Amino acid sequence: MILTINCGSSSLKYQLYTTDLSEVVAKGLIARIGETGSYSDHKAGCRGEKVALPVPDHKTALELMLASLMHADYGVIDGPAAISAIGHRAVHGGDVFVDSVVVDDEVMAQLRACIGFAPLHNPCNIAGIDAAKRLFPGVPNVVVFDTAFHQTVPPEAHVYALPYELYSKHGVRKYGFHGTSCRYVSQAAADLLNWPIGDMKMVICHLGNGVTLTAVDGGRSVDTSIGFGTVGGVPMGTRSGDFDPTIIFHLVNQLGMDLKDVEKLCYHKSGLLGVSGVSNDMREVTMRAEHGDERCALAVEIFVYQIKKTIGAYAAAMNGLDALVFTAGIGENSAEIRSRVCAGLGVLGVRIDEASNEVARDGYPNISAPDASVATLVVPTDEERMIAMDTLRLTPDHLLTTPRGVSSRGYEQARPI
Questions:
Q1: Which of 20, 99, 104, 146 is catalytic?
Q2: Which residues pair with 323 in a beta bridge?
Q3: What 8-state DSSP symbol labels residue 321?
Q4: pLDDT (tens digit, 9 = 90+) per residue, 65-79?
Q5: What is the pLDDT of residue 403?
Q6: What is the DSSP string of 50-101?
């Protein structure tokens, strides 16, 4: 079986796949790690349990995960040896990792060297790998990097116009994120259209609490909206997106804020929350906008405008556009946002069928109008499956069979999820 582990700053998501990846046997979420109100939510088909309990750190979270997978009532394995390989998500691989890799001591050292690029996330990813190696001895671990897909972005798009030594000596450059999602969605879009991905130019709109727009030309990322860190590009739930950096000088020199305050403002007090003043949740913001809240209406307008402008820029950079793809929480679920983004993009050949747009979340991915020259799709992302696919690809065949005497219990009762 293939186990995927996604350690966030305060959460752990996991999924257990059959070795051929045809089914998800179990999955779970351990949330609010290191905070009050932490809980574990495990599912195996129609069975499972959600329970509140203290989870002080990621090491404890992984121990709870293994206990759930082996639970007498809703577990699905007899022991750690039932796992053939484990795939991990890592947020930042710097410019060292251009593909997923099997974990060894050198990989761990390089991953630790990237902590400065993602201080909130890489330590959690590392903690997850360390705990997995201890809990599942002898099981190969594979790490999949969010930044790896964007290593094909050319220098004119990834080098900032700052003193060059910051780039050459200190790695200050555009890295991009959500690469695992973009890689999965771009291939899924090509498959849906029955079009070779090598012949396609597309823009992937990963719209959630975090937002990334990515230009994908021939299956390769050639530009992406988020840069060195995870605050730039299009405004997000609580993050500002791009703004004039002289504002930072003004906040520090004229308003007396220190850099920690500015960092908190950019990451946690801006975006939809900052403009609307009420929420980082697009559902609540759009609802309030419909009821006449002017600041909420402005927050939505800013969000839509910046997405639309970026799509146009990427179409120009690629010298064409074949497909526009929406994914992630907002992209998959908000027909209103999709409609508003696509309005006015007719100059690029984007036209959607509003009736199809309204039912896209029910399994009708192609929302293009009959006369559109650009395909517009709604494609659910599946980062966990992409991690599992890479883990399967990089694990030697002889390690992908369950050892003799070790069973996967409750399998028939567990499926499907």
A1: 146
A2: 202, 375
A3: -
A4: 999 999 988 889 988
A5: 47
A6: EEE----SHHHHHHHHHHHHT-TTT---SSGGG--EEEEEES--TTT-SS-E
